[in-house]
Amino acid sequence: MHEKKPASFRSALNPRSPILVSCRDAQGNNNALAVVYACNCSYDPPMVMVGIVPSRHSYGIIKETGVFVVNLVPESMKDAFAYLGSRSGRDEDKLAALGLNVGEGVRVNAPVLLDCPVSIECTVTGSVVTGSHEMFIGKVEYVHADATLVNDEGKVDWSAIEFLRV
Question: Of 44, 117, 148, 166, which has fewest CB within 10 angstroms of its CB?
């Protein structure tokens, strides 16, 4: 039998993988933030859920615009993830400061982070306040994936991505 001892909840159940949520405000300013609370929440229709603390700059943008993009983060973007998670878009254009490659959404008015292997455009259909976070439920509108990751059936080869681990 293994001995157990009390542990912090915050470290006990840490969802994988961390993501970057990108958005654009009504004035056309792009922003992105690091998020670790994210998951699929429906496959029909396809939907995802991302948890954002209300004090974050992106929170107000997503509430106002009703759209966001989930960008899956490779290990090679570890420094960018840390930067985007430790600075506020209220103070600077974080994407420009990092020199990240930014594209346009196909179905939503939000930036796609082209350095990420998969980006998922979403429209907010609802949200749930869970305490420290508001969980935005996003209907998947379009999925961008690096061409080398997509097979003939349109499925992403997840084993070919070295995801960031935090």
Answer: 44
